């Protein structure tokens, strides 16, 4: 992946609805060349999907929490169990005092409590610790330049 690919990714992250002509112009390529590079980035799995960023609060899901899950067994095979809870946006096996880190979004803290009950029902879960986000200070997409690169 070269600098032109990285520049294309940056442009697409800013607005994935841009035409290939606009993308090409932004990075110094023809529309056809931009289209071909984007196609290859998709084929290689660099671009996993094209989506729309939605404001969760506008949909009524204003409560964001990170939940540390303690367990009595290895939880690495429990992805489907966590995925079955729609409010769980992300689930990560982690190193440290907990086994799994979940990103959860709900409408209210009462709904969060219900989600925690459903997490407790997953085989192997022995406890949870939820941290509710009061305000998000920084949130950004993955940088095509890589972490720490300019």
What does this molecule look like?
The structure is a single chain. By secondary structure, the protein is an alpha+beta fold. It is built from 5 helices and 4 strands. It has a 4-stranded antiparallel sheet with strand order 2-3-1-4. β2 (88-93) and β3 form a beta hairpin. The longest helix has 13 residues, at 31-43.
Q: What assembly state would you assign to the polypeptide chains in this entry?
A: single chain
Q: What is the overall silhouette?
A: elongated
Biggest sheet, open or closed, and with what strands and sense?
4 strands, antiparallel
How far do the termini sit from each other? 16 Å
- Radius of gyration, in Å, reads 20 Å
Structural class call reads: alpha+beta
Mean pLDDT: 93
- Number of β-strand runs: 4
The residue ranges in which pLDDT falls below 50 over 5 or more consecutive positions are none
Number of helices: 5
Q: Assign a percent range to the helix content.
A: 25-40%
Strand content: 15-25%
Q: Give the SSE order as H and E letters.
A: HHHEHEEHE
Q: Within the largest sheet, what's the order of strands?
A: 2-3-1-4
